[in-house]
Amino acid sequence: MSTYGIDLGTTYSCVARLDANGNPEVIRNNEDNSNTLASVVFFENENNVVVGQAAKENIETDGDRVVQFVKREIGKASNRTYTFDGKTYTPVEISALILARLKNIVESQGGTIDNVVITVPAYFGLEERSATKQAGELAGLNVLSLINEPTAAALSYCARQFQEDRTILVYDLGGGTFDVTVVKMSMTPNEAGGDVQKIAVLATGGDDQLGGKDWDDKLNNYILQACCDENGITASDIEAETRQDIRSKVEEAKRKLSQKEVTKVRIDVNGSRTEVVITRKDFERLTADKVAQTMNFVDSTLAKVPDAVIDTVLLVGGSTYMPMIKKAVEEKFPGKVQQHDPDQAVAKGAAIYASMLGLAIEGDAGDVEGSAGGDASEDKRAELAAKFSVEDQTPRSFGPGVIDTKGTKNKYILENFIKIGEKMPAVATKTYYPIEDNQERVRLRAFENMSTEDALIPSVDEEGNPQATDPANGVKLLGELIVNLPPNTPKTTKIEVTFKVDASGVHVEAVNTATGDKFETFLRTASDVDIEKSAVHQLRISSD
Questions:
Q1: Among 14, 306, 316, 426, which one is least packed by beta carbons within 10 Å?
Q2: pLDDT tens digits for 334-379?
């Protein structure tokens, strides 16, 4: 069976596999003459949807029928949708179109995709991760797992030029997201007495709403204002088509400024030809705050591992081609910076991880060398699986909402079973009790948040009822598990609650220890229900 890794990017996406010799290779997009696919979708009409560079070329002329940067919307509470020709699309469905196009690229070259691993920003929460996996399944892909983008990049680097006991900082600035991750790479013995190259994530940080697009926006506004100044008009006087023309030329100008000190952009403004001269210094001045923002994340992430000594810094993501980025990082880590395959490292690392996971599939006999799938043989993948070990971290803290009958005087609190930054997969169990005798059921709510505290008291409404979200701590309601109790259940009955967190989601289990009855759910999508306003169906911490 053929396994692939997919880097589903904000601006560009990429698909990779292992060749017959076990080396990761990117599948070339021959139609666009590129190793990547523009993550852009153009709805030409109800019968034709275009994905890739051809879609991107319509931004100038049919911008209202083009969707881009959808990765910033996937799994978000805004629930944004897009409507074309009477049909409404969610971010998951738009992402599925991009993934389906990557699948088609492989198949058009005689390959088949049986299993995939899709990459996500390390900072993605459960909703974003679940939505990403759902998009893959909607595209007809069997998603083995997800892997954090910096972890995938580190795996790709490790496969190429591993050095023992290295602490690496991955600075990953993509088109729409930014991650910074500290990774420890070391040799550890395995059960067979050999050595395994272990990749362990020590700390991570970043922002899934910060990326190259923000640099583009700054440059776009600069060119727009220059056009206004040159023609003595205001931004509202510039026609929509002209605005789209400016936007379409921004990325090209940014690329040129990575190679040259000065570039020119020519725009027709209301019938008048306008030439805007942009220097690299101007661009760096305009975006200095964004560079500083990324470096602040670097500092805050390093603060989580104060004893770590960084040996190497990997620059990953297409936006790290900008000279200002390399300069800022080199100033902080002189002599330690490497620009490691920025556009392809994440997809290649995902391909390695996918092949490792593929061996665990029951009945997977592996492809033979030279097969249509082009994947590595089973022996090659077995060799790879024995060579590497990947240990990632939980992206959030997770736990149930319960009633504290002691310390906080009957307050509804969120207990963090599993805290942000723990080794993943993570498992934790705790015992709770019904609120009262003869309680017929328990409504067990599961939450994620950004706090490292043992417990949180969430925000409440005017009537004192806890809310499903609490922006101050990044609290989100993930879903619920209904636990039915038999008649005459005393309030001293122990209910054991277990949370299990891995890259794909959160598994919640509750066991009535008196009867052995087990209730469980796998939370892959967020619930849209509100917190139960009555305490009757909750659990409490104390048995008193």
A1: 306
A2: 999 999 789 999 999 999 999 888 765 544 444 434 333 445 556 6
Distance CA 270, CA 95 (A): 36
Q: CA nearest 150: which of 425, 346, 389?
A: 346
- Please give the CATH superfamily to which domain 3-210+290-393 belongs: ATPase, nucleotide binding domain (3.30.420.40)
Q: Shortest CA distance to 19 belongs to which of 417, 387, 275, 381?
A: 381
The percent of residues in the chain predicted with pLDDT above 90, rounded, is: 60
Q: What is the pLDDT of residues 173-220, one digit of tens each?
A: 999 999 999 999 887 776 666 677 888 999 999 998 899 999 999 999
- Tokens linked to 138: 């909607």
Which homologous superfamily does the CATH classification assign to the domain defined by 397-540? Substrate Binding Domain Of DNAk; Chain A, domain 1 (2.60.34.10)
Secondary structure E strands in 214-321? 262-269, 272-279, 312-316
Decide: 320 and 258 in contact? Cβ < 8 Å: no
The structural domains of the chain, with segments of one domain joined by +, span 3-210+290-393, 212-286, 397-540
* pTM of structure: 0.85
Per-residue pLDDT at 193 = 65
